[in-house]
Amino acid sequence: METIKSSSLKSKEEVIADLEQVLTLINDGKEGYQSAAEATDNPELKALFAKFSGERIVYAADLKEHIAAHGGTADNDNGGLLGGLHRTWINIKEALSSKEDKAILTAIPEGERAAIAKYNELIADYADHADHLKLLEEQRDGIQAALSEIEKRIASAA
Fold it and tell me: What's the distance, CA 136 to chain centroid?
């Protein structure tokens, strides 16, 4: 006798937990970019990092709205350590102490890639995240654009 697996949707709590994980990553990115902006003496990089930090503030506000729409509350404005995924932005702190722009720049991509991977995971789970799929795609694309800009800066600093 063959058993048929029923694909069940995630509970409201699981969807909220997914969004909270993304929110934590966004807050990690916001804090990382704020720290990078404070650490560099290069006005152009300072402005770029401040811009990316500001984008993360908007992303966080939008995510909080979606969490609330699902009945959750997201008071957290800070990053977190929900496993190794969030640890990636911590590496930037070591680079900041050097005050070298290339070291600061090269510390960023790992955190951005971790965020993109989490977004891709949720986007692939479109049945559970259908009502905020567009938001997730737009934010992921924004993070991808930031990563591309950082990678260009790394290449030109080489």
Answer: 11
CB 63 within 8 A of CB 129: no
pLDDT over 60 at 56, yes or no: yes
Walk me through the domains of the chain, giving residue ranges and CATH numbers.
12-75+82-157 (1.20.1260.10)
Predicted structure pTM score: 0.84
Burial of 135 (0-12, 13-18, 19+ CB in 10 A): middle
Residue 155 in tokens: 């290449």
pLDDT digits (tens, 9 = 90+) for 39-49: 888 999 999 99
Q: What is the residue whose two structure tokens read 């995240």? A: 129
- Taking the alpha carbons at both ends of the chain, their separation in whole angstroms is 62
Could you give the CA distance from residue 104 to residue 35 in angstroms, rounded to a whole number? 10
For residues 44, 98, 106, 156, the Cα torsion angle rounded to the nearest 10 degrees is 50
Rounded distance, CA 20 to CA 14, Å? 10
Q: Is 119 in a helix, a strand, or coil?
A: helix
Q: Tell me the per-residue pLDDT of 73-92, one tens digit each, with 9 for 90 and over.
A: 876 555 554 444 444 555 56
